[in-house]
Amino acid sequence: MKLLEDGVPLAELSIERVARTAGVGKATIYRRWNGKDELFIDVVRAAEPPDPELPGTGLRDDLVTLLESLRRRGLATRSSAILHNVYAQMKSSPKIWSAYHAGVVAPRRELVMQVLRRGQESGELRPDIDLELANDLFVGPMLVRSTLRPDGELPEGLAEEIVDTVLEGLRPVRSTAS
Amino acid sequence: MKLLEDGVPLAELSIERVARTAGVGKATIYRRWNGKDELFIDVVRAAEPPDPELPGTGLRDDLVTLLESLRRRGLATRSSAILHNVYAQMKSSPKIWSAYHAGVVAPRRELVMQVLRRGQESGELRPDIDLELANDLFVGPMLVRSTLRPDGELPEGLAEEIVDTVLEGLRPVRSTAS
């Protein structure tokens, strides 16, 4: 973490240098991590806000919690020089980027899928909805603001607004009298 | 375009080199473009599939047309080495990236906003919806698949599916009898 704070590029980070900076032997590092990529991904995970506990009180609340966590991670990335730097460096290394996806992003996506499957089973979600699509409908708008548009607004309450609007739909409510 | 096909990096592209490759004088280039950035952005625009004509038959059809265009651009980026290369290079140059955003991305977003405003005026969209949010609800899921997930599926019919599902909502249809 100190080396990243100092702006050392990923390509110059070696297990040897990490060990030296930490004041330990290389063997101590290798006891916990198989290599530089694994170590690096654990560092990213530690720098990100922790993943949330789901309230488990229903589809809507679980989805709001997951999207709120995404919003906070977006805010953290903007305010944390380390995270900003780390994501930029990861994107330039296809190997580490795909290890980060497999180890961190994919499990997060799977958690959303679990919540959606439970929601469909409990009847809180239309039975005809493709869940991969539903995942993107909830997560996409938040990701676009936090990742693709550096000036995208991430106000408090955005998670609730996205979840409620996607659940409810954008069409005017049809009169039940007609 | 030839220089980009040959893989010449953006940093090495100069008006002089473009003029030489095109077999014209630098003055000929400067008659149409003020500089390298403007020229480059016009090249990107020419390499992308053309922006669509809106059918104008209503909110749903206009949105499907806009999202279908986004889907095609996503597919083109995957299959075109030039586009792939050009986007990657633009992202590493904040100045050109922001010129591309101002000249190409912002007008596209404004077109979606116009369609949404018309839809709200005609009563096809709930009157209480924030249109900036609505924009992200429609565009976000497609952008996430085309831009953030290199393996995201972009099947035919995806534009219709996103638009119809977001308009309709994900909650089960409530019985009108209750």
Automatic annotation (TrEMBL), chains A, B:
Residues 14-33 bind DNA. Keywords: DNA-binding, Transcription, Transcription regulation. It comes from the Bacteria. GO terms for molecular function: DNA-binding transcription factor activity; transcription cis-regulatory region binding. The keyword Lyase does not apply. It comes from Streptomyces monashensis. Residues 1-51 form the HTH tetR-type domain. This is TetR family transcriptional regulator. The lineage of its organism: Bacteria, Bacillati, Actinomycetota, Actinomycetes, Kitasatosporales. Transmembrane segments: none annotated. InterPro entries: Homeodomain-like_sf, HTH-type_TetR-like_transc_reg, HTH_TetR, Tet_transcr_reg_TetR-rel_C_sf, TetR_C.
